[in-house]
Amino acid sequence: MKINGHKIEPGASLRGANLYDANLRGANLTDVDLTGANLASANLISADLIAAVLSAANLMGASLVSANLTGANLYGANLYGANLMGANLRGANLTGANLTGANLFGATMPDGLTHD
């Protein structure tokens, strides 16, 4: 799949990519490097982001409902107002991430506990 000229596939380097409002529903983004990427308002419902690098990525208002972020690196990511309902964040790095206003209902947190 290609979006805004970027090939979307496992292991791809999408550092700094502008994927604003992109429809990535159900996409396999395993091991993808999205460092500094703009994913604001993106549809990442049920996306597979296992071990993805999202350091300093902008995910403001993104929909990550039921997304698999197991082992993902979200260091310093902006998740302001993002919807992470039912997402799997087990083992993810959320150090310095902005989760203000994010919906974490039913999400599995890095420590394995479910957020209510």
Q: What's this entry about, in short?
A:
With 116 residues, the chain is low in regular secondary structure.
Distance between the termini: 35 Å
Approximate helicity band:
under 10%
Contiguous uncertain segments of 5+ residues: none
Give me the number of helical elements: 0
Describe the structure.
The structure is a single chain. The protein is low in regular secondary structure and 116 residues long. The chain has a single domain (1-116), classed as Pectate Lyase C-like (3 Solenoid). It is 0% helix and 3% strand. It has no helices and two strands. Strands 1-2 form a two-stranded antiparallel ribbon.
Write the layout of secondary structure elements.
Layout: E1 2-3, E2 6-7
Antiparallel strand pairs: 1-2
Primary descriptors:
Pectate Lyase C-like; 116 residues; little secondary structure; two-stranded antiparallel ribbon
